[in-house]
């Protein structure tokens, strides 16, 4: 395929070259030839007028009379002169072969004839004019002239142009070859890099030099490869984290069931305790896999048909679902929810967002702490804020809390049944809805999560 690009490129250059050289080889020659024709016509016609008027002074055209006139005029620059009388008879001819009389006969009818041809390295020109007045024509005279000097100049110019054309042609082809080689060499290098990356080596980077379109392509390719490398490492980490998360509760379940099976005798209460533990671990597994499925659905970017979602209603539902947990932890749930905070999207996703944020605010709170949820809107944004008075998130962890399986305090979070997936789901859902999420400090202690969504127009809501 690359060969064909080179082939097409050279062909293109050749075509342009051919047109240019054709023009160069024809236009100057034909135009200077035409100029010579023009000049011949006027000089020969002028001389013919002089000769004709001199001959017109004779009463009759006789060989002797004509010769006398020519001698008197001292004409010597013509190759041949032919004079015919009024009947068409040849009166004077200083040529060797039989003269061509057609033009002379036309002249005898009162019309002058001029001819000039450029052939055999010479301009051969002739002019035939009538002799006498319009009413009394007594004959016609033809002057023949050949000019090898000017023809020679034109021929030598032509020769030089041909040589020049050859030199230009060879030079242009060499340049085209060099240029295509320079371009194609870089394309080959880029293709090699692509093959290496396609083979799975995402650490490979294309060496970019210069600042033209090909360098830009190389840079874009490197950026793409970098993204691939990042995705690949995220994927690997995700798989290993997920396996690890699933492995721990599975190992507990195995251990607990082994204990039951191996015990010779186990009283019913102990057995119940073990089975209850197994149930807890199975619940943890179930929650983790459900969250993983949520994430994978968000990853797939499957677009649900957006519907108007009243965030106030979704928040109230989440709060009532979380009331038992808050009571357990001795945390007070407060809210200030404006009416009419509607966005376009999926009610399920919004339920996940609000539930996870509020659940975290309760779980990572302190006894007698508070959770405050606010909902407000301005001209173009709907804002949800979840504030807590809990343990807070250290500055250095804030960038990572939206990463899958990331927990600030591993032991504490796991103990509270957390899988480290909640905020990833929140983040992905918010982004999928065109929104943004930030986390900051709450005063005097605790965290605050601020989520903003674009406010839909009335038309979008369908009002
Ligand atoms: N409001 C908060 N206050 C303090 N730390 C928080 C808060 N919210 C989240 N975190 C920290 O961020 C981590 C990630 O939160 P995330 O919700 O993703 O996971 P999780 O709560 O541990 O588990 P899951 O939500 O999947 O049950 C938590 O483990 C916790 O350390
Ligand atoms: Mg959570």
Describe the structure.
The chain has 463 residues and is α+β, with helices and mostly antiparallel strands. It has 3 domains: 156 residues, PAS domain (Beta-Lactamase, 2-Layer Sandwich); 83 residues, Signal transduction histidine kinase, dimerisation/phosphotransfer (DHp) domain (Helix Hairpins), CATH 1.10.287; 159 residues, 2-Layer Sandwich (Heat Shock Protein 90), CATH 3.30.565. Helix content is 57%, strand content 18%. The chain is rod-shaped, with a radius of gyration of 52 Å. It binds adenosine-5'-triphosphate (ATP) and magnesium ion. Adenosine-5'-triphosphate (ATP) binds next to helix 8 and helix 10. Magnesium ion binds next to helix 8.
- Ligands: adenosine-5'-triphosphate, magnesium ion
- What's the pLDDT, averaged over the residues? 92
- Rg, rounded, reads 52 Å
Reading the helices and strands in chain order gives HHEEHEEEHHHEHEEHEEHHEEH
**Main beta-sheet strand count, sense and barrel state:** 5 strands, antiparallel
Low-confidence stretches: none
Per the principal axes of the C-alpha atoms, what is the gross shape?
rod-shaped
Please count the beta strands (DSSP E, at least 2 residues each): 12
Report strand order across the widest sheet. Answer: 2-1-5-4-3
Question: For the record, what is the CATH homologous superfamily label of the largest domain?
Answer: Histidine kinase-like ATPase, C-terminal domain
Strand content: 15-25%
The CATH topology assignment of the largest domain is: Heat Shock Protein 90
Q: Kindly provide the name of the CATH class of the largest domain.
A: Alpha Beta
Instruction: Briefly note the structural class of the backbone.
Output: alpha+beta
Tally of helical segments: 11
CATH architecture of the largest domain: 2-Layer Sandwich
What distance separates the N and C termini? Answer: 57 Å
Q: Helical residue percent?
A: 55-70%
């Amino acid at each position: 395929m690359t060969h064909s690009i080179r082939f097409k490129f050279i062909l293109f250059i050749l075509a342009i070259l051919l047109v240019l050289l054709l023009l160069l080889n024809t236009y100057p020659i034909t135009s200077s030839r035409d100029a010579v024709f023009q000049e011949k016509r006027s000089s020969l016609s002028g001389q013919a007028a002089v000769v004709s008027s001199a001959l017109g002074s004779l009463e009759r055209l006789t060989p002797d009379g004509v010769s006398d006139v020519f001698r008197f005029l001292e004409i010597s620059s013509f190759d041949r002169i032919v004079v015919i009388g009024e009947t068409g008879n040849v009166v004077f001819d200083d040529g060797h072969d039989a003269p061509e009389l057609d033009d002379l006969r036309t002249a005898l009818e009162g019309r002058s004839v001029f001819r000039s041809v450029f052939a055999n390295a010479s301009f051969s020109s002739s002019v035939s004019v009538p002799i006498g007045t319009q009413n009394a024509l007594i004959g016609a005279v033809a002057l023949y002239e050949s000019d090898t000097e000017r023809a020679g100049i034109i021929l030598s110019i032509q020769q030089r142009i041909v040589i020049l054309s050859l030199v230009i042609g060879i030079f242009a082809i060499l340049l085209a070859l060099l240029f295509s080689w320079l371009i194609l060499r870089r394309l080959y290098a880029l293709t090699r890099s692509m093959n290496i990356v396609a083979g799975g080596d995402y650490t490979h980077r294309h060496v970019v030099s210069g600042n033209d379109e090909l360098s830009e392509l190389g840079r874009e390719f490197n950026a793409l490869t970098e993204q691939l490398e990042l995705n690949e490492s995220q994927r690997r980490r995700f798989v290993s984290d997920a396996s690890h998360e699933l492995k721990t509760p599975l190992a507990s379940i195995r251990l607990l069931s082994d204990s039951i099976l191996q015990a010779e005798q186990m009283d019913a209460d102990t057995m119940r305790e073990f089975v209850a533990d197994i149930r807890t671990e199975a619940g943890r597994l179930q929650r983790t896999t459900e969250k993983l499925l949520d994430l994978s659905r968000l990853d797939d970017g499957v677009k649900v048909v957006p519907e108007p979602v009243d965030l106030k209603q979704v928040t109230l539902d989440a709060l009532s679902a979380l009331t038992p947990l808050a009571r357990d932890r001795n945390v007070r749930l407060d809210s200030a929810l404006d009416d009419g905070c509607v966005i376009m999207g999926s009610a399920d996703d919004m339920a996940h967002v609000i539930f996870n944020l509020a659940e975290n605010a309760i779980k990572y709170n302190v006894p007698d702490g508070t959770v405050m949820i606010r909902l407000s809107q301005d001209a173009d944004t709907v804002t949800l804020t979840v504030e807590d008075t809990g343990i807070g998130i250290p500055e250095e962890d804030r960038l990572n809390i939206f990463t899958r399986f990331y927990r600030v305090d591993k032991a504490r979070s796991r103990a509270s049944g957390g899988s480290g997936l909640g905020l990833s789901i929140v983040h992905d859902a918010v982004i999928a809805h065109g929104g943004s999420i930030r986390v900051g400090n709450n005063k005097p202690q605790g965290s605050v999560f601020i989520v903003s969504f674009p406010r839909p127009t009335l038309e979008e809501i369908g009002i």
